């Protein structure tokens, strides 16, 4: 059975990507280069549902489900605010920027997508949806002190409001893993209700 590695996400606009590149550059200037592998800013996105290995024969049904979920959701604005680390600043593994959408439309859209793809063999996440943009990952070989240095840089950063964008669509994306990182290809775009 042929499969594709896929996920559903909101793609960022150019203005937000440019701001996130500045944030990455400023943080990278505060720590040794070997500590963090920064995500290519062109690939930064807001993941709504990671599907993983997706049988090719389910792609059409997934696209139809995404159309239903998107058409039932009004376009909305989301804001990117603040920085943080998973699991925490003392032992960071991931550096992220926070995403806010106070009307609950983002959360509703994510739940609707889960409801559409769950019957297709992609069970709902057990963890609560935590919208964020991954900016970088701490290298596994980084020492505890080195990892803490990026956590300290993030904790001491003065980044608050990083930007806003209007969300008008969700993308169904194929992810191909290469030695130089993931390569993303948009397979389909489902438009929100404008």
Explain what this protein looks like in three dimensions.
The chain has four helices and nine strands, in the order βαββαββαβαβββ. It is globular and about 45 Å long. The termini are far apart. The protein has a single domain, classed as Cyclic Phosphodiesterase, Chain: A, CATH 3.90.1140.10. Helix content is 27%, strand content 39%.
Rg result: 17 Å
* Total strands: 9
Largest sheet: spatial strand order: 2-6-5-4-7
Return residue spans where pLDDT drops below 50 for at least 5 consecutive residues: none
What portion of residues is helical?
Answer: 25-40%
H/E topology pattern: EHEEHEEHEHEEE
Mean pLDDT: 94
- Shape field: globular
Q: Class by helix and strand content?
A: alpha+beta
Which fold name fills CATH's third level, the topology?
A: Cyclic Phosphodiesterase, Chain: A
CATH class: Alpha Beta
Distance between the termini: 38 Å
Tell me about the largest β-sheet.
Answer: 5 strands, antiparallel
Give me a quick take on this structure:
The chain is an alpha+beta fold and 194 residues long.
List the helices and strands and how they pair.
Elements (H helix, E strand, L loop, with lengths): L2 E9 L2 H15 L7 E3 L6 E11 L3 H13 L4 E11 L7 E7 L4 H13 L14 E7 L5 H12 L5 E7 L1 E10 L2 E11 L3
Antiparallel strand pairs: 1-3, 1-8, 2-6, 4-5, 4-7, 5-6, 8-9
Helix pairs in contact: 2-3
């Amino acid at each position: 059975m042929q499969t594709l590695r896929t996920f559903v996400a909101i793609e960022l606009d150019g203005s937000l990507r440019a701001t996130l590149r500045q944030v990455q550059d400023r943080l990278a200037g505060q720590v040794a280069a070997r500590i963090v592998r920064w995500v290519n800013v062109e690939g930064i996105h807001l993941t709504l549902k990671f599907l993983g290995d997706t049988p090719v024969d389910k792609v059409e049904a997934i696209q139809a489900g995404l159309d239903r979920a998107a058409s039932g959701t009004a376009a909305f604005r989301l804001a990117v605010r603040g920085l943080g680390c998973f699991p925490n600043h003392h032992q960071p593994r991931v550096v992220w920027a926070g995403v806010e959408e106070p009307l609950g439309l983002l959360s509703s859209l994510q739940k609707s997508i889960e409801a559409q793809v769950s019957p297709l063999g992609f069970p709902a996440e057990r963890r609560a949806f935590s919208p964020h943009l991954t900016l970088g990952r701490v290298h596994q070989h980084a020492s505890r002190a080195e990892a803490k240095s990026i956590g300290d840089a993030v904790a001491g950063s003065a980044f608050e409001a990083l930007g806003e964008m209007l969300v008008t669509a969700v993308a169904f994306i194929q992810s191909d893993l290469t030695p130089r990182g993931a390569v993303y290809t948009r397979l389909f775009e489902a438009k929100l209700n404008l």
